[in-house]
Every structure is written in structure tokens, then in C-alpha cells.
Amino acid sequence: MILKDEVFPIGEVIKPHGVNGELSFNFTSDVFDTENIEFLIIEIQGILVPFFIEEYRFKSESTGLIKFEGVDSDEQAKVFSGLTLFVQKKYLDKVEDAEIELNYFVGFHLVDEIKGELGLITEVDQTTENALFVINNGSDDELLIPIGDDYIREIDHDNKRILVRLPEGLLEL
Question: Does the pTM exceed 0.70?
């Protein structure tokens, strides 16, 4: 059985393409192309199910067409519309962190090298020019921490922990 904390999202099925079960999809990572990944995982009725890749091809830098084994008609393909595509986390080392969708980090703990535990990431605010982690620090106040490669020192996917070194004075704002 595949567990939710063992996978991460890499894209989404858009809609069926043609009548032979092929699917149009968008992706945020092409790790399935650069690594020998035999299957993608899709959550169906709360259960993570592996679907073996029969073939795929890219249409653009962020879209492609994919055919899964056993999905051979337009009717079978329709049930996949709008569903998220996942791969196992063991491939995370092969993916650049910038390719991971930011909402993936909701539920991670943010830890500063100097200040220690800052709190739990409860959401990602992408309404501003710079995306922000919204941190619940246990008090009534929430912290807004800019997401930047300059600050992030380490991402521990297994323990859901991000180690940062924030600029001095940022937490006092």
C-alpha cells in the first residue's frame, strides 16, 4: 500500500485526448522522463493507485500526453480528468526543489539555524510578488516568511522539516 506521505505531486491530468485512452496532462517536474519511473500514482477515492506508463510524449515545456496500461478508451480516460499525478518521494533527490509545487510544503516545520523552531507551515501565500510561508508559531500571531533559495539551507522531506537561516531582524518585522 502506498501512503500519502510517501509521494509528491508532479502534475495534473487535464482531459482525455482522442479515443484510445490517452490523457492530456500538465506537469511541474519531468522526473518521470529523466528517471526510470515505470508508473505514476493517482489518488482515487482516497486510495493511492499506481498506473503503469505505456507511453508518453511532451507537447510543450509543461504539458504532455500519456497513455497508461489498461486505459484503452475515451470512457475509461474520462475518470482521470482533474486528478493529481504523483511519484514516490524516493525520486525527490532527482528533482530540483524549484520544481516542487510550493503547497507541498504545507505541514512542514520551519526551523531557523539561530532562532530554532519557528512553527508549522499552515499555508503558502502566493498572492504577492514574493511567495510567503504562513507559519503558525503557537501564539495568536502568524509569521509570514518569504520563500527564497537564499534562506533555505536544507529540506528534510522524510521528517517534514525545512532548515533556514533568515536575515537578522526579519522576525522582528
Answer: no
pLDDT in tens, 65-122: 999 999 999 999 999 999 999 998 887 665 555 456 787 788 899 999 999 999 999 9
Separation of alpha carbons 93 and 105, rounded Å: 16
- Residue from 13, 162, 161, 160 nearest 86 by CA: 13
CA angle 31/88/77 to nearest 5° reads: 80
Q: Which CATH number is 4-99 given?
A: 2.40.30.60
**Cell numbers at 134, concatenated:** 504562513
Query: Quick one: residue 162, left, alpha or beta (phi over 0 = left, psi -120 to 50 = alpha)?
Result: beta
Residue positions counted in the chain: 173
Domain boundaries, given as residue ranges, for the chain: 4-99, 102-172
- Cα–Cα distance for residue pair 71/74, rounded to 1 Å: 8
118 and 132 Cβ atoms separated by less than 8 Å:
no
Strand order in the sheet with 109-112: 142-146, 132-136, 116-125, 109-112, 161-164, 152-156
Is domain 102-172 classified as CATH 2.30.30.240? yes
Q: What is the per-residue pLDDT across 16-44, written as a single tens digit (0 to 9) for each? A: 999 999 999 998 777 877 778 899 999 99
